[in-house]
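hey so i finally got around to running the thing on that chain from the lab meeting. sorry it took forever, my laptop kept dying and i had to restart like 3 times. anyway pasting the input first so we r on the same page abt which one it is
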Amino acid sequence: MQIIFRFTLLVLIFSSTSWATLAKGGDKTDQDHGGQVDTKEEVNAYINHHLDDSHYFNLYSDGETGEHFGIPLPVIIYDFDNGLHLFSSSKFHHGEDLVEIDGQHYKLYHSKIYKTDAEGTITYDEDGFVENAKPLDFSITKNLLGMILASVLLLWMFTSLARSYKKGQIPKGFSRFLEPLVIYVRDDIAKPNIGPKYKKYMSFLLTVFFFIWLLNLLGMTPLGFNVTGNIAVTFALALVTFIIVQFSGNKHYWKHIFWMPGVPVLMKIVLMPIEILGMFTKPFALMIRLFANMTAGHVVIMSLLGLIVIMQNWIAGPAFFGFTIMISVIELLVAFLQAYIFTLLSALYIGMAVEDHDDHGEDVPVV
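ok and heres what got predicted. didnt touch it at all, straight out
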């Protein structure tokens, strides 16, 4: 009951803070500098900004004065014509200013850094895409900061749990909350889907489960992280699963892909490209499922808050605020569920790769 109360309190803090920020007029884009968020276009821009990554960790924006309060993050760019450079994102002044380095000019535009002329001109092609060159960007962005924070928290939590096991003691404090979850991943995810070889993959499954879950929870706080709503992050997680599966595959796994036993030769030829395609659709499904579900949750919550601001009456305000609370509580379940599904499917794919298959008879000749 105490954990449920804390989660509910977290949801209330998130909803209340987001509502207040939206009504006040947040940092809508890297170029905007305040202004009351009270139209559909401005609410849409605010939602898009919440979903996008940023070079500036914005905590609060004053809609009346346009002042921003937050933490500028380090910018690390490599320009093939101008070399490697490191400076603070505060030099961009939320996209208002140009940064000049050795005669080259750089501009922050929609969370991306472009090389421009001295006037900061952004040019578009006939399809509406930006033509300006982009340097390689290795900056510490808000999403990367969220991943670093989650990694540090995971190291702290599991170091404490491992220390208790090493001393032969019963876990205490927060470690007692982690232990049943670790056992759950082992007994209900790893063992049934991977089999006797599960121990080899436990470290990966535990890491991906708690990493995704913690990032999902951080995304529900007023800090504004949307890490698992970034398709590049979900792609990287799915890619790791794909690499582990392929390098773990035994001869039976590869035989069932390239030359399916127990079926006619013509069917082997037909099934081969389908099985090869299946190798890539599995991680693709992992990537899209996590990205789409977390993005949809953020969009729904922010849209409900936006309706409060747009409609501005005493009936819509409490009604949509209540809906926001309900959706936020559901998002707590989704945060855990998506981490569970990603880990479960990863274990299932690994189990399919390491399982010793029984060939179903000899190849069937074509009559």
